[in-house]
Task: structure prediction
Amino acid sequence: MARATTTSDVFNAVAEIRRREILSYLAVRERPVGDIVVTLRLAQPSVSKHLRVLRDVGLVRARREGRRMLYRTNAAAIRPLHEWTETFERFWGHQLLRVKERAEAKAQKFDSTKSLHKEEV
Amino acid sequence: MARATTTSDVFNAVAEIRRREILSYLAVRERPVGDIVVTLRLAQPSVSKHLRVLRDVGLVRARREGRRMLYRTNAAAIRPLHEWTETFERFWGHQLLRVKERAEAKAQKFDSTKSLHKEEV
DNA sequence: TTGACATATTCCTATATAGGAATATGATGT
DNA sequence: ACATCATATTCCTATATAGGAATATGTCAA
Result:
């Protein structure tokens, strides 16, 4: 079996870095395709194809305005991704705590020795 | 050009649903490969291959214990993903607010009409 | 209608899977 | 050394890209 389709879910859709860049760009406000082409320096057909993928999974919405198509990011569609990563938050929290503790331990050691050597840091 | 490698970054690595399942399973505590095979009902070679990918991008750590290899999720490696999704939080926040407002407006309408029809909800 | 502009689709190709089957590597106990 | 358990790798194949080039579709203006 090959890899899952890019349009099979949000995870696969955002795997491509260009699509992530497009999403960030379109998050602030809607933009025509041409703006994406210019700003992100991508070939026009490439942009259209990426937008197609993003649209298929609901990550962007589109509307026509004259000759142009205006796209905008549908941020809500990113939530599942956010929520999935959040389930791991408590685990890296532990590690952060450890880092903090070590930093404090080191600071204390620094105080007790009154050392000013850079190597201590 | 083809798609980016699954090991090119965390985004590509977690695009595969099996790998996400493995990460969730290994987040709580370290486990030998065999446990993953049994619990997630995957073929052993398949699990080893997925673990290889996850390991290459730093999403899991491994250590040997006798004949077995114990794997655990390195939650910190998921942070970049979390942080990226977080940049969109303020955008879906707006939408949530709107949903909430509409819900309240609807509740008020419900009160004023004293309707009990299911269709209202 | 015709031309120009804006975007989308099609065709092509090199590449990277993911899963199944078979096999290799590694570690343990006897 | 050998058999066994545990895991990793290799080989195979069908499939799905992503990008470039060419072309199609859609819209407006004269």
Observations:
- The mean pLDDT of chain A is 84.
- Chain A touches chain B through 30 residues (CB under 8 Å).
- The radius of gyration of chain A is 22 Å.
